[in-house]
Structure formats: C-alpha cells, structure tokens
Write a structure and sequence with these properties.
The structure holds two protein chains of two kinds.
Chain A: H1 2-15, H2 20-28, H3 34-43, E1 48-49, H4 50-60, H5 69-81, E2 85-92, E3 100-106, H6 108-130
Antiparallel strand pairs in A: 1-3, 2-3
Chain B: H1 3-14, H2 19-43, H3 48-72, H4 77-100, H5 104-110, H6 119-144, H7 156-185
Helix pairs in contact in B: 1-2, 1-3, 4-6, 4-7, 6-7
Classes of the chains: A mainly alpha, B mainly alpha.
C-alpha cells in the first residue's frame, strides 16, 4: 500500500511539473535541503510573507542561516510546485508598510515532510548522545 | 548608487528571471529587497556590502531558475530529435578539433601520438564515427515521417543540425576514402 501511495504521489508531483530532484527526495525520503527545512520550520508556526520567512529563519537558526531573496524565492517556487506549501492570499502586514503581500502557509504534505525530517534529526542526535559525541543536554539548555 | 537607482537596477536584474517566475515572485522580491534595505538603514549598517551580496545572490538565483525552466521546457517532437542528433554528433565534434589542434590531454589519453591508438582510442574513434550516421538519421527522421495531416514537413532546426552533422561526416569520409585510394587502389607503400 505504501509503495502504491508513493507511486501515486510520484505521478501527482511529476504532473505538477516538479524538478527531478524534488521527486527523488520525496520518493526516497532523502533529507530536505537546509533552505527547504528552515522555511517549513518557519511556516509551521503560522503564515508568513517572504521577508517574514527570512526573519523567522534567521531567528530560528540564531542568525547562522541567512537566506537571500534568490534562494528564498527559488525554494518557495520549488516547494509550491511540490505541494509542500501554498499561497494563502495577499494582505497587509500589520507591522509593515501599506503594501499588500503574498502570505505562504505550510500544507499537510509539508507538515509530514517536516515531521519526517525532525524525526531523522532526532534519531541522529540520539545516536550522537549514545556514542557520547554530545552532552546529554544541549549547552544552551543548561 | 542612490536608493532609487539601486532599486531600479534590482528590478532590471529580476527581469532576467524566466517570465513565469518573474510574474509569480517579482513583486514580492522587490518588496523583500525594500524591507531589507529599510532594516539595514534603521540599524545604521552599511549598504554597499548588502547591495553587492544581494545582487550576487540574486544573479545566482537567475541562473538557477533559467536552468530549471530550460530543463522543464517541453520541446516539440522534431526539436527533441534535432537535439538528440546534435548530442550524438558531439563526441566527434570534440574529437576532431582535439586531434587537429593536438591537445595533449586527448592525445595522451587515446595514444594518438602518431602510432596506433590504444583500446580506448579505438573505441572512442570507432564509436564516435558510428554515431555520425545514426545522428544524421535521427535528425532527419521527423522530416521523413508523415505527420497527422499525412504530409511530410521540413523543419529548419533539423535541416540546420543535418548540415552541422554533414561537416564531420564529409571530413571523415573524405579522409577514409582518400586513404583507401592511395593505399589500396594506387598501392603506395607506407601511405597511411
């Protein structure tokens, strides 16, 4: 059943004109790119516009990941095509200027992809702790 | 560069994105660029580094999106055949000038230093030569087959690729023919 579901998903995504890399990633469950992962993480807490995503990614990564507009909008295009996110409409940013902006929201498939990526990270962190490569609690928690 | 001129230059750079991408994200990208500039200005940070980095990063995005758009483009059937023909003729298209210009890497790899080529050399030369007629037929095929209107059609791009393929074909056929004539027909010793 899982295999049939994957085949159906593959066909559906290829019909949506997704790049081969995206299809391979989704079928084989390979890791998400850092940009895609951070965007999904940013959108998991609510709808954001492009600049909002940039700022949220910077804050989530403690300014270690800084995305330019080229990377951000290229990733958004691929993620929209792959059905990981969707446009949720154009509206004013209450904290911004008087320009209407396109907001993006995470989709069900996006949440699944994010959950599976986080589970992969969790497994790796557990493994690192088991092998005593990491302290039992992260330094910033102490 | 003043703020307005930088913004105008950024807009022009965005014009290099594929049309579909530009229509979808162009306006949002300009808004994001304005937001980032406002933020830098408010923080009292320098604009030069930010501007250079943004332009470079966006240029990379332009290249990436154009490559992606090209790879997604659906070519017409006759163009796919022309492209296949062109790709098939590439090995000899690279090999002949390399031999003629005596490029060291190719000469050493295939042992083309006047003596007999090595196994790889033979495989590459024979393979590339055999691909020539295949490339010619593949390119010609859409013009030989009848279309849905039961008529054959001429396609300029296929004719052009056929002409491109004909050049190395003519050169190699002339070379082989000339050697056969000298060595076999006229019986000149040590003629090759």
């Amino acid at each position: 059943v899982r295999s049939l579901r994957r085949t159906r998903e593959t066909l559906a995504t290829s019909l949506r004109d997704v790049s081969v890399t995206d299809i391979v990633r989704r079928v084989t469950g390979k890791p998400l790119t850092p940009a895609v992962f951070h965007i999904l993480l940013a959108l998991s807490r609510g709808e954001l516009h492009g600049y909002g995503i940039m700022k949220q990614v910077e804050s989530d990564s403690r300014r270690r990941v800084r995305m330019g507009a080229g990377t951000l909008y290229g990733s958004l295009r691929r993620m929209l095509d792959a059905g990981l996110i969707r446009e949720s409409g154009k509206r004013l940013d209450p904290a911004g200027d008087d320009e209407r902006r396109i907001y993006y929201a995470i989709s069900g498939e996006g949440r699944e992809a994010l959950a599976s990526e986080l589970a992969r990270y969790e497994h790796l962190v557990d493994l690192a702790r088991e092998k005593r490569l990491l302290a039992t609690r992260p330094a910033y928690v102490r | 560069m003043s703020g307005d001129r930088t913004r105008a230059a950024y807009r022009r750079l965005l014009g290099l994105y594929p049309r579909r991408f530009r229509e979808r994200f162009g306006e949002s990208m300009v808004q994001t660029f304005d937001d980032l500039r406002r933020e830098r200005r408010a923080a009292g940070s320098g604009m030069l580094g930010f501007t250079v980095w943004t332009f470079l990063e966006t240029t990379l995005g332009v290249v990436r999106e154009n490559v992606a758009a090209l790879s997604r483009a659906k070519l017409a059937r006759h163009r796919r055949f022309a492209l296949a023909g062109f790709l098939l003729v590439l090995p000899i298209g690279i090999l002949l000038p390399s031999m003629w210009l005596d490029i060291a890497v190719v000469r050493d790899l295939l042992a083309l230093d006047g003596g007999r080529p090595n196994v790889l050399g033979w495989a590459v030369i024979v393979g590339a030569l055999l691909l020539l007629p295949v490339a010619f037929v593949v390119t010609l095929l859409p013009m030989l087959q009848k279309g849905p209107n039961r008529k054959r059609q001429l396609y300029a791009v296929n004719l052009l690729v056929c002409a491109v393929i004909s050049a190395p074909m003519a050169i190699t056929l002339y070379g082989i023919g000339e050697e056969i004539y000298r060595c076999e027909v006229r019986g000149i010793p040590n003629c090759d």
